[in-house]
Prior knowledge:
Elements: H1 14-23, H2 27-43, E1 48-53, E2 58-63, E3 71-78, E4 81-86, E5 107-110, H3 114-118, H4 120-132, E6 145-150
Parallel strand pairs: 1-6
Antiparallel strand pairs: 1-2, 2-3, 3-4, 4-5
Amino acid sequence: MKSAPKEPTATESPAKQLDGFIAKFEPAEGKLIRQCRAEIRRLLPTAVEIVYDNYNFFVIGYCATERPSSCIVSIAAAANGVGLSFYHGATLPDPQHLLLGSGKQNRFVRLPTVDTLRSPEVLALIDAAVSQADPPLASKGGGYTIIKSVSEKQRPRRRA
């Protein structure tokens, strides 16, 4: 019998906490989250990762600064799947009509596999989002991870 994933504590390193958050998901979803994170990290090496383990979603935002308002894209995961959210997606050129959502600002793409994230069309959206970033991403240096918020009460991260 499997035991429930251990809840991370604030005294653990961000990397250890992140592992704990991802462990709450089904193994296949956890693997996809890790693959997407590695891919975004490769594409945006100077971005600050801001992590939220909130009620509805587990989110890793990729930002130009430590301020959430500088977010460019984020990985958002719930029990029903993983998506790539574009913080200012409503202003992005989308000739392929990949972006979903109808809010004033945010749009997203569902990521059934990491291959979707690697597709030329999604990479073009990421490039467009990076070019619109205000402030822009740093041109040199390395990004780092900040655990910003963890909700005590959360929706299940695994399918019922």
